[in-house]
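Dear colleague,

Following up on Tuesday's group meeting, I ran the structure prediction for the two-component complex that the binding team flagged. I've pasted the input sequences exactly as they went in, so you can double-check that nothing got truncated or mislabelled along the way. The structure tokens for the whole assembly follow below. Feel free to forward this to whoever is handling the docking comparison.

Inputs:
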Amino acid sequence: MPSQELLLTIITDISIWFVLYLIVTIALNLQYGNTGIPNFGMVLSVAGGAYVTGALAGRIARLYYNVGTDLDFVADSAKIASMINNRLASDPLGGIVLFLLIIVIAVVVNAVLGFIVTYPSIRVREVYLMMVLIAAGEAIRIVGENYYPLVGGTTWVQVPNVFIWLGDAQRVVVSVLFVGIALLVFWVVQRIVGSPFGRLIRAVRENETVVESLGKNTVGIRALVFVLGSAIASLAGVLYAFHSHAVMATAFQRSSWTFLPWLMLMLGGKGNNRGALLGTFLLIVVRRLIMIFKYEVQQVIPVEAIWLELLLMSGFLILIMIYRPEGLIPEKPIKVRGLDYEDMARVNARNRESGEGDEWRDWQLE
Amino acid sequence: MLPTYVSGAIIYSNLLMLLSIGFTFAYLTAKVPNFAHGGNAAIGIYVTFTLVRIMELDPYWAILFAFPICGLTSALIYKGVIQALKRRGAGLISLSIATIAAQMMIFASVNIYADYMRGQAGAYARVFLFRNEDFEWLGLPGVLLVSTLLAVSIITVLHLMLTKTKFGIATRATVENADLAGTLGIDTELISLVSWFITGGLAGVAGTLLPLWFQSTPYTGSLILMSVFSASVVGGMSSIYGAMVGGYVIGLTEVLGTSFLSDQLGSWVLSYRPLIPLIAMFIILVRVPEGLAGIAGKIDLSRIRESASSLSTFARRRRGDRDA
């Protein structure tokens, strides 16, 4: 049935984009929402992950299977990828190992990259950090678009299809796998945020001086969170590359990989992952609908869809920040294990009756 | 007369200086980095385009039009976005992301305008260079003279305004301590608004002159912002004089450095030109995070203190000698 086919296409399409952006938004929420690091260069890590995949997946597989080693990696990348895919079709283990290996390399490379980029500025004024990160996001695009051997400059490189052995089931299985990876990321970050370390990073966000006076190294904590966030966000780049079987440097623009995640986080509500999830979902659905009905829209408003979308998104962000700065789901204090909230409520009630003693305030009770 | 790369370096430094003065000044008064600054330059670029290609006027008329247009855009951003957010207690990061949103709006609008102009004026609305529309004087390109004159006169006017007028003194008070200035009856919000108008206008003016020497696209505004950041960091983000020096240091390093490196290593270096200000910014942040103003301040202070103390001991000894 064609309509069922179409529905499946739309669902897998939306779920893939949702997964990619969810990972980025969660990473941003860890960095900005929880720790207060203004990462205006999110695109750096996403592009970093995709570049690692584009540059290494094909090269590693080419060496491993010893096919097409005499061809030019970029110019003949389609030919090389199809040779590798032929071998991968009968080698599920090879595909899985390649997938995991690239993930590990990308995570390590981007963690290091994140550390290097923030090293000079994380200890000085916030404004400098913002400027360095914006500039670094532009810089990686410039490198990607000009350094031909990396991912083909303004052309692209093909990425081997590591799930080709799944045959027809590929699309559904890959979507489910990616959703699983995103849920894993969500769960891990949720655990980090709920742990003592999570309370520490929110304390850094609220007041660095207080945290330092308690003997904590705030610069180190901020650098650690930035590195962690970069590593997580690079996953999105890796998955994006493996999903589209190609990497193109021009796809990593500031508007789509820095600004859009910020908009998602601000819409959903910063500082809580459920908000990030909701904001990502809403915007992905809206954005995909715009893409699907782009020709109809262009009939009415004779403007290129990308600019119209950018105009609407940026206007929307300003409106959200003015009229609903806390987002759709405001941040709530996270319950701490080991505290007896019911007892605190009882103490409150008793104190209120007798008119003596201090009251646990609302945020302590939540 | 002059080799082209030297003219290019001077023109670029002049324009970069105007931009980085504006970026620093807007930051100092409102304490918010105006990431839409490059957008104002992009508007300036397209004002020139419109005048030259559509109205077929001399490109320098664009200065007159761009100043109010970009000034008003910038003032609108301050009034409509920054003030509205400040009133709701938004912090530095929220205000900054709002200016990025404003930058995105300008960027999208400029692109829409460029697409529209492509329909009106033919294929070259997205990449253009107006070197041929410029005049020459004694073999020097006109934009070299105009940008230098403009830079010198704008610095002079700004300096006089900041030191001699009541408004300028109020501005400096706002920069030093906005709350304290407010208690003295200075309308700090008005000061910020006016400074954003002026700086936006200056960015627009710098933008109008860019296409006279450099190839311009709708992306030029965002790209040049990297050099502006770098120049402001070199300047220390604490005074417009620092930004002035920073603009020249980065402008000259960027253009001369690129042409030197491309001579040495080959022309592939040219495409990596925007990385030079980034690297410069990294070095400055690691070595002297307070910028050149900080170095100058440190040297002066220590020397002055030393010489002052030695002078005073000397004077005391002399006085002691005399008394005895």
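The two ends of chain B are 69 Å apart (CA to CA).

Cheers,
M.
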